Amino acid sequence: MPKPDTAAALAAVDAHFDEFVEELQQLCRIRSRRQEPEQMEATAEFIAGSVRRWGGEAEIIPWEQSYPYVLAEVAGEGDKALLHFTHYDVEVEPAGDDADWISPPYAAEIHDGRLYARGVADDKGVIMSRIHAAAAWKLAGLTPPVTNRIIFEGKKWLHSPGLGSFVQAHADRLASDAALWENSWLDGEDRLLLKLAEKGVLYLRLTAQTLPRDLTSQNTALLPAATARLAAALAQLQRPDGTVTIPGFADDARPPTDEERALLEKVAFDGDFLRKRAQVERFTGDLDDQAAAVAIRTVPTLTVAGIAGGDMRDDVTLGIPSTASAKLEIRLVPGQDPERVLGCVRDHLAATGFGDLRIEVMATSRPNLTDHRDPFVALVADAARRVYGTEPVIEPYTQWIGNQGVIADRPIVGVGVSRADSGVDGPNENIRLDDYKAGIKHVIEVMAALAVAE
Amino acid sequence: MPKPDTAAALAAVDAHFDEFVEELQQLCRIRSRRQEPEQMEATAEFIAGSVRRWGGEAEIIPWEQSYPYVLAEVAGEGDKALLHFTHYDVEVEPAGDDADWISPPYAAEIHDGRLYARGVADDKGVIMSRIHAAAAWKLAGLTPPVTNRIIFEGKKWLHSPGLGSFVQAHADRLASDAALWENSWLDGEDRLLLKLAEKGVLYLRLTAQTLPRDLTSQNTALLPAATARLAAALAQLQRPDGTVTIPGFADDARPPTDEERALLEKVAFDGDFLRKRAQVERFTGDLDDQAAAVAIRTVPTLTVAGIAGGDMRDDVTLGIPSTASAKLEIRLVPGQDPERVLGCVRDHLAATGFGDLRIEVMATSRPNLTDHRDPFVALVADAARRVYGTEPVIEPYTQWIGNQGVIADRPIVGVGVSRADSGVDGPNENIRLDDYKAGIKHVIEVMAALAVAE
């Protein structure tokens, strides 16, 4: 088929933009916090209602370890399909003080061309931009040129433990030629970031148990403390500065190509800002900013996210702790297999005399990477040039942990409607209405281009 | 003066024993728990009232970081003075379930010749035995042969942070030729244990801070985690089995003489019981029971009593912990100087690259040891032979942390009125009334012997 003309759909966006914004505001007025199950249900209902209002189909699907998924489809012409992934929960990280807001976080007020609302940048703006992009074709009296399939996820847990089984169970309804992910934005120079990768995670709890219960420390000369044993085990896993010392840990990490390195060096990285925030003189390993920008995206890391053991009351306590635990976040880079890395950890603990420590896998996700030379990337970039009038920034690796791995069999590009300074999860989270409009138009252009892609 | 005749005082104990027991029961019915300030005050009032009732003087002295001290004096003939140390708080360790008691823990009922009450073995039986020993002389129409000075301490904190300044401020009223401490008992063969030493403690909190606040673990490749840094520092202090690796740590530990070792080997030590309780096959360093009994009393130890850092919620959390802390209990043996050992810890951390860790001293006490060849020890042992008809067991070193160091300028012997199986701080804590009577008589004999000691 000939490349669809986007003019009518783009004009519909302009004509109906106030209506679109009003609907986004309504969505933002729902307190979609993981701590408020009823509000999460209401959010799913609202989203499904919106899809249907604009002529699509939507099903609310309760699922294990998750709030209900909303699975939507807006049928298109031709046989191409575009999958969208978004999430409707807000407050991914601990949020700031409501009192610091220009207007209440769930009032969703507009000031100076910006919509201020908790979750508008992550991820409600993205949610509605995908719905409204499909709607625009209908409003223009047309059928979208590709079938749009949209996953709206309501996370109950940050690591989406139910997503894998959900995707597997609905594989036929999620089939697509390509996918637009979320978790991206425009940089300070109005350039859209095309994010092509996500890290995976291997999240472990490591527990040392040396005694059946805490015993009096009169016996320390004779009996081992779990706290000391755990500390000794952790010291085998990395150097004090965090450098991992587990043999084979990074063996399957895919090294960036020279071309990818060159792309990464173009991604904005404010080393001074981070050093100031962290109050450090220099980064680990004395990396300069260019190397640091590459390292945070391409080096697998191990973070001891927490440790606990014994009795930490602010008092003299006289016990030998029987158990002590640590949470280990291992952030995997593209190429890495969580199972293989788990094997490395297990083997190294055994080899260094800590085979008795219990290892629980709390979460796991596979890293993912879309080749920056994939035609879909060029297509999304080209659409961005047309809509934004700037050269998009291709980010072949990112520092984010995510779940792209569950739909790894297709090219995936992350795009969004926010800015680096949108204040996600802080006070005054906002998006610019201009960015919202451009984001809808960009998705329309992607649909049109995908329809005629080889 | 000639050695005082104890017959009349001993007879008074027999004649008034029911009255003595009744008064001990009354004391045991007060809930002298550190969590109940009013009950602690009431306990101090009761004790002071008892001292006065039997013709002594008592002052209730409020003191910093403590419940009120009761300082008592029962004037004696001659110029010799005997100091007693006791404490009136109960529940030193977390107590068991009240439902497991034969009668309620504060009912202080007598069953089969035993008085069951929370705190009766530690330390209320001792308290009243010292008061009643002085009372017996008065009841016999006599003046005690030595002046008795008694400290009744109400601990607010386990480590008695106010005791040092209290003793210093009241040095003249605490002067004595010798002291009877508490925290001892009879073993399974009706032998009184004469405890001649207490360990000291150097209790530290070690804190690593690597960042001003937790930051996202996206940056782990660039920024250090406090958790990993703390674990690495702890691993420098000891081997995984607890063996301390701080240079000079034990340099000032007084090694037991051959004679003291021989004495220690006579102290009952049930290795099988401890191994079973700890569910270990063998003790650290493969010590046999004889060596273990010596080690727990003479080897300084370091216990990581607690560790905490980061976010231990049962969820995937993505932060670089900015701070992490550990509590270190260093149990000092006789000869050791807390300040010197602190210097060793500090120097070693600095030498191994951890000089940035903050060290807070939470508590400190000096170890103490009374030479087993001191004439006062022979005197107390001789009195025990007469009263108990068995050979007392001299324990030149003990595993207990204590505060004897604050009155280190005189011989100190720990004696008591309980048994190894008195169930201190568990359900059914009890003493045998026969032991209570013998304990009073033993103190009477000690008074008489001290009066004529060289």
Quick overview:
2 copies of one chain form a homodimer. Chain A has 454 residues and is α/β, with parallel strands linked by helices.
Would you kindly provide a written description of the structure presented here, covering whatever features stand out?
The structure is a homodimer of 454-residue chains. With 454 residues, chain A is of the alpha/beta class. Chain A has two domains: 7-198 and 367-451, Aminopeptidase, CATH 3.40.630; 200-253 and 299-365, Alpha-Beta Plaits. Chain A is built from twelve helices and 21 strands. Chain A has helices at 7-15, 17-28, 37-53, 120-139, 163-169, 226-237, 258-266, 271-278, 289-298, 338-351, 375-388, 433-451; strands at 57-61, 67-74, 81-87, 109-111, 114-116, 147-154, 178-181, 185-186, 193-195, 197-198, 200-209, 215-216, 301-310, 319-320, 323-332, 358-365, 368-369, 393-395, 412-414, 418-419, 430-432. In chain A, the strands form seven sheets. Chain A has a six-stranded mixed sheet, covered by helices on one side. A four-stranded antiparallel sheet of chain A has the order 13-15-11-16. In chain A, strand 1 and strand 2 form a beta hairpin. In chain A, helix 4 (120-139) crosses helix 12 and helix 11 packs across helix 12 (433-451). The longest helix of chain A has 20 residues, at 120-139. Chain A is globular. The model of chain A has no long low-confidence stretch (mean pLDDT 95).
